[in-house]
Amino acid sequence: MVLSTVVCGSTNLAFELDHNHTNGTNVVTAKKEQSYNVRKEIALGWNKHTPCSLDIKEPEVNDELTGATEAYMADVLARYTDRWLERTKHNLGYQLNSDFNYDALGPLQRLSINNAGDPFIAGNYGVHSRDFEVGVLDWFARLWEINKNEYWGYVTSGGTEGNLHGLLIGREMFPDGILYASKEAHYSVFKVARMYRMNCVKVETLASGVIDCRDLKKCLLNNKDKPAIMNMAIGTTVKGAIDDIDLVVQTLEECGFPRNRFYIHCDAALFGLMLPFLNQAPHITFKKPIDSVCVSGHKFVGTPMPCGVQMIRIEHINALARTNVEYIATMDTTIMGSRNGQAPVFLWYALNRKGYNGLKKEVQNCLILARYLKDRLREAGVSVMLNELSNTVVFERPQDEEFIRYWQLSCQGNIAHVIVMPNMTKKTLDTFLDELVEERWIWFKDGKNQPPCVASDIGKENCVCPLHI
């Protein structure tokens, strides 16, 4: 028995490798007890690049005869695949749907599919998937209620690229405009502001996480001479809160901003594929005075690679400097140059298989399980909040970082969340709940430790700490 320790980045994974195993494969044991047991502090300049045992190795001279490199790579990939599969089963905190099967698309791995440039202008590189891409865009156009001849869009690398593009259009339309975003907006929005050197105002939020339109009104009135570029969080990352488009538009109008002096971008990374299938949900629709919407594909739909969709009103694309790139025979209208041509095929395949009815069933099941989880946590005496029409269950942060890492909970301050995605089952949630209840008994049994007060995070009505019981 040889013990090999793989150290990459900030994760220490130990694998027991039995090189004498009868079938020649390795036995992998990912040791849960090696997880961190203290809260990890992140500081630039202190996160050192640790030695990694997965260095690229130069093949030996006789490698073609011995097959040593192929055997080594197969061994490493088998170990990591086992690790990834185990981790996938215990991911509760991140917006990923791992319930997919794209085996039929395996042959695409032999092709370099590149959708460089504008999706509506085929360049001179013939191995592209623009037909699939436009098919996906047309599907989203129907979902978000805009005619084919009235939109422009493309398949992106994910929600951040969608924000980069949508807010760039806003900045180009209003070079002196001010970007307004709630303080609970996705971190990429504030990165966009830095990258584009935009003046940015962080607006306060309510305890639920939605933008506080009273504070927005004050901010707008303080800057009446500047156009407004609004970022709407259609589902905040931590609390799953949905900004009210109608109320924001009303606030803009009350503050004296006519339609030609504001731009609205909707960051709907997860909820852009959920709200349209809920009868009582506010509509994400271009029939309202919005200008762009972006969504992630790897989140609710579920794909092996990060991807997304960005869509704007077609007249806005002219705000970009539409450079004609002669050597690829297309226009430069996207953030990226070369673009993943496989992503549109995967999205096209998934949307065809699921359809509107399939997605609607998945959305409804997620909300049912989210309410079940919220109720079980409340019964166990845990402070918990679930926003209406949301699959993000927010609760008091567990005391043990090992427990957090094992279940891959996403945390912020004194709160954590579980995002109930289509791949999750009631059995998985019950296992998590049983372990959490057992751990809480250990943490608080002697009375010295008390559950944290999270009233300021999720509201007094949702906090059951000793102060608010």
From TrEMBL:
Q: Which InterPro entries match?
A: Group_II_Decarboxylase, PyrdxlP-dep_de-COase, PyrdxlP-dep_Trfase, PyrdxlP-dep_Trfase_major, PyrdxlP-dep_Trfase_small, Pyridoxal-P_BS
Alphabetical UniProt keywords: Decarboxylase, Lyase, Pyridoxal phosphate
- State if Lyase is listed as a keyword: yes
Q: Name one GO biological process term.
A: carboxylic acid metabolic process
Pfam families referenced in this protein's UniProt entry, alphabetically: Pyridoxal_deC
- Which coenzyme or cofactor does it need? pyridoxal 5'-phosphate
N6-(pyridoxal phosphate)lysine, modified sites: K299
Q: Does the keyword Ribosomal protein belong to this entry?
A: no
The protein's superkingdom reads Eukaryota
GO molecular function annotations of the record: carboxy-lyase activity; pyridoxal phosphate binding
Family the entry assigns: Belongs to the group II decarboxylase family.
NCBIfam families for the chain: PRK02769.1
| Protein name stated in the entry | Histidine decarboxylase
Query: What is the originating organism of this protein?
Result: Chenopodium quinoa
